[in-house]
Amino acid sequence: MRMRPEDLYPPAGGRPARRPIDVRSPGEVAKGALPGAVALPILDDDERHAVGLAYAREGQEAAVAVGERVTAPHLHARRAAWQAAADGEPSAFVCWRGGMRSDLARTLSERPDTPTVEGGYKAIRRHLMDGLAPSLARRTPFVVTGPTGSGKTDLLHRLAGRGGLLALDLEGAAEHRGSAFGAMGPQPAQATFEHRLALPLLLGREPFVLLEDESRNVGGVHLPAAVFDVVRSAPLVRLEVSDAARLHRIHAAYAAAPARREGVPAARAALAAAIRRLKRRLGGATTERMVAVLEDAEAQGAWFDAEAFRAVILPLLHDYYDPLYRKATPDEGRAVVVRGDEEEVASWIELRTREAA
Question: With a threshold of 0.85, does the pTM exceed it?
């Protein structure tokens, strides 16, 4: 029993037809994961390496024998995991090319009604990437722009799930806020990032899409060409907010929230390291003054007071990020369809999408 990638992820289908059970090795999944899939490998990385060596040296029969030997101690647990996944919700087995490993997982799990996907991960990835440009082309796009700290991501999250609008969080998919201070943890592989963008675009039926103004590179990953073309050409929705609002938003995201998660010393060390990475641009004396402000905020118990960070955050915004923003976001030839604070912009977008519904 097999299904095609376009049946698993039907264009404008609203949701996947089935949940993928990905039986590739952890190393393969790390290079390109499928959103929503449950990863239950038939071979771990060491086992896959041993099987691959046997195949290269002695052929398929020897490789199968090695696979049976190295997986024997774990087979009962893996079979139980596949069975539980297949019984939990409608699923489909996926391996690299849709061949031996997915067929074997289905057979061993004794779930003949759970299909395998033709062509496996490679065919699914091709389906997702081939659908990216058409999925964007069938929507009216808007790009939310505004200087650092104006709340672009907050606006996306506020509007996510509203009828008629797909709010696509590029930085969330990249797990990076797109600046020297933006790392949220290890970033996904490039292929994983692309899948996170392509799948909601492919499945969704919304006539509008809202994206954040972004450079081509978001940390260590880059936007697919089709997405970057839209980001650089679509009409602009411009957020305009006060310096006070920007100060409090930046402080909350980059100082207060990390301190609550990891403690003030760790948050202070991370911020100081990020500031020092900008030393060539800021100058040595300015960099050390900013680091001293952080140390004072920690020592005086003022870490959660945004005003204690004024001498760090506002100079960073005015002297570093705002010039970069103006350079990276030219307005020539682009319509600004609405400008204002979050309430004004959100109201305009909601009215626009309702009128078109």
Answer: yes
